[in-house]
Amino acid sequence: MEIEKYQAAIEAILFTMGDSVEIGKLAAAIGHDEDTTRKLLHNMMDRYEEEDRGIRIIELDNSYQFCTKKEMYEYLIRVAKQPRRYTLTDVLLETLSIVAYRQPVTKLEIEKIRGVKSDHAVNKLVEYGLIEEAGRLDAPGRPILFGTTEEFLRRFSLQSLDELPTVDQEKIEHFKEEAEDEAQLKLDI
Q1: Which of 2, 48, 102, 148 has CB 3.0 to 4.6 Å from 152, enough for a Cys bridge?
Q2: Distance (Å, whole) CA 87 – CA 139
Q3: How much of the chain exceeds pLDDT 90, in percent?
């Protein structure tokens, strides 16, 4: 009976908050330690997945949140306005991957890697809620540092940044050689 009471409390908190809630706050709210709370949450997550429900609980970097199952999208759009969809162009994806793998990173560092101005791409990614200001660099001018957001994790179905695919060092070296060869060809012309 106690377990159901705690799970009901967690359910009420997640429903009411709407956004993700850190495990520590959930644990404090129900008066248990984080490990016990995490077990309760994972039990609930399993139950929601097994049962034929329209919602589920997702984990986002040591926080938890209610969300709608993907399979329910067609029903939602019949009632709600169609959610704003945005397109991630190659430029935006390139910029986003630089931020994801190098964060916290300044706009100047992004531009150095990309080789072109990145104001528009960075501004669009901030507008889409995929990156945000993550502080300021302790250097002249105190440039803004950018990092990914929970929305980034949500959109790419990641629980944490640790789940980002690893980059093969051999491929990186191969790409560098190709870029240098291409740059040399342009100089020769």
Answers
A1: 148
A2: 34
A3: 49
Decide: 159 and 61 in contact? Cβ < 8 Å.
Answer: yes
Fold of 90-188: Arc Repressor Mutant, subunit A (1.10.10)
Whether the per-residue pLDDT at 33 is higher than 60: the answer is yes
Instruction: Summarize pLDDT for 96-114 with one digit per residue, the tens.
Output: 999 999 999 999 999 998 8
For residue 43, what pLDDT is reported? 92
CATH 1.10.10.10 domain residues, the chain: 2-79, 90-188
Q: What is the pLDDT of residues 114-165, one digit of tens each?
A: 889 999 999 999 999 999 999 998 888 899 999 999 989 988 888 888 888 8
- CATH, range 2-79: 1.10.10.10
Q: pTM (2 decimals)? A: 0.59
